[in-house]
Amino acid sequence: MKSTSCTQDAEVLWNIALIEENFKRIADNISYTWGYPECKEYMLRLVMDSRDGERHGFHQDVMQCIMNLIQLHQDQFEGGYAG
Question: What share of the chain is helix, strand, coil (3-state, %, to 5)?
């Protein structure tokens, strides 16, 4: 996981931990790709319905965590990705 500040790191880890409670694979994927363009693309795919209305969706708290992480990723890495 690539990062830029301790405060942002703590917020990222907190959101990932909440996701991990019910979706370990998703939390692992976010952790492994954090700081790379693929991470934001992955998270955006999670929140988009690509199953013609067949997707059940996430609980509101998990969806909020994913949205928080998308924003944090954008804030930390917009304009240049870690690498």
Answer: 65, 0, 35
46 contacts 66 by C-beta, under 8 angstroms: yes
Structure token pair of residue 74: 């954008």
pTM, 2 dp: 0.83
Residue 40 CA neighbour count, 13 Å, CB half: 16
**What confidence tens digit (pLDDT) does each residue in 24-46 have?**
999 999 999 999 999 999 999 99
User: Which CA distances in Å does 63 have to 4, 5, 19, 79?
Assistant: 24, 24, 9, 25
- Count CB neighbours of 4 within 10 A: 13
Distance separating the N- and C-terminal Cα atoms of the chain: 11
